[in-house]
Design a protein that fits this description.
The chain is α+β, with helices and mostly antiparallel strands and 324 residues long. The chain is built from 8 helices and 9 strands. It has one domain: HIT family, subunit A. β5 and β6 form a beta hairpin. The structure holds 5,6-dihydrouridine-5'-monophosphate.
Amino acid sequence: MSPHRMERPWRGRHESSEKSEQPGYDPECYLCPGNERASGERNPHYKSTFVFANDYSALLSDVPVIERSNNDLFKIDVIQGTCRVICFSPRHDLSLPEMQVSEIRRVVDLWIAQLADLGQTHRWVQIFENKGEMMGCSNSHPHGQIWASSFLPDEVSNEDLNQKIYYEQHDEVLILSCLERELEDAERVVLENDSWVVLVPFWAVWPFESILLPKRHVLRLTELNDRECDRLAEILKEFLTRYDNLFEAPFPYTMGWHGAPSDDGDYIHWQLHAHFYPPLLRSATVKKFMVGYEMLAEAQRDITPEWAAKCLREVSSIHYKVRI
Ligand code: H2U
């Protein structure tokens, strides 16, 4: 990256940062306890987490019979799946970093229970969260989604293939080999505890892009022990607090879990990890656009991963809303 890129004048789009003051209960919110959703169904008066089948599922378990096509240019296949919405808290005004560690732990338990459940009948269970309007999130009530499918989506297929090739060539788990070197060097490490590490990966293209992974070899969320789940809740709180503190505003991102697929194949080459892709570049309103050169040639970085990791290490671990 040229050093001039950081200084270039910005005359692009400025958006107003999202409103931070929200009521604890919003009568208009389709995720708040007791409220009606688009389907006409009413949410229970839930007190902790709550899961429901997405009323606008992109994947269906009952798929219409269509003719498959093996045409070498235009392949058509039938896919089957399920989409769910997961509410992290009954409180409309909280986000994950503002929740207590014990409440985040219940979200961790929910992720694990959902993977265990949907993984019995689906090859891939994609657990994710879109946070913030900028990332297409439709509602600030803290929630995530799960899309479970009968097939391995492309991103996951590529990760599976590359981890497999590396394992066959080196007899080592690719992501753990990277982790070992990252911990030795520490320049891209954001924070760690005895079970987990957050780092800005060497290959990061989004500003402040990060991955979170266990220190030991773990294939899937369902293999985590009780202590690791506690430590995960703790590190999530601290890491996401640091994200919010970067620009003292709710930090938008898409995050999601990648672990070994749920079929009974041999996935010893896999290491569980979560990706965090945030769009913000220089303030709560100035975002990185993946356009022009990025779309037509290749991704280029506005900030280095080392600089991003340093910013995240140096920013306070106490949430700005608590400090004011
Ligand atoms: P996002 O905020 O990440 O878009 O997720 C909200 C999901 O909630 C979205 O996938 C679903 C949308 O389909 N939804 C319902 O299932 N029922 C509703 O009444 C409104 C929104």
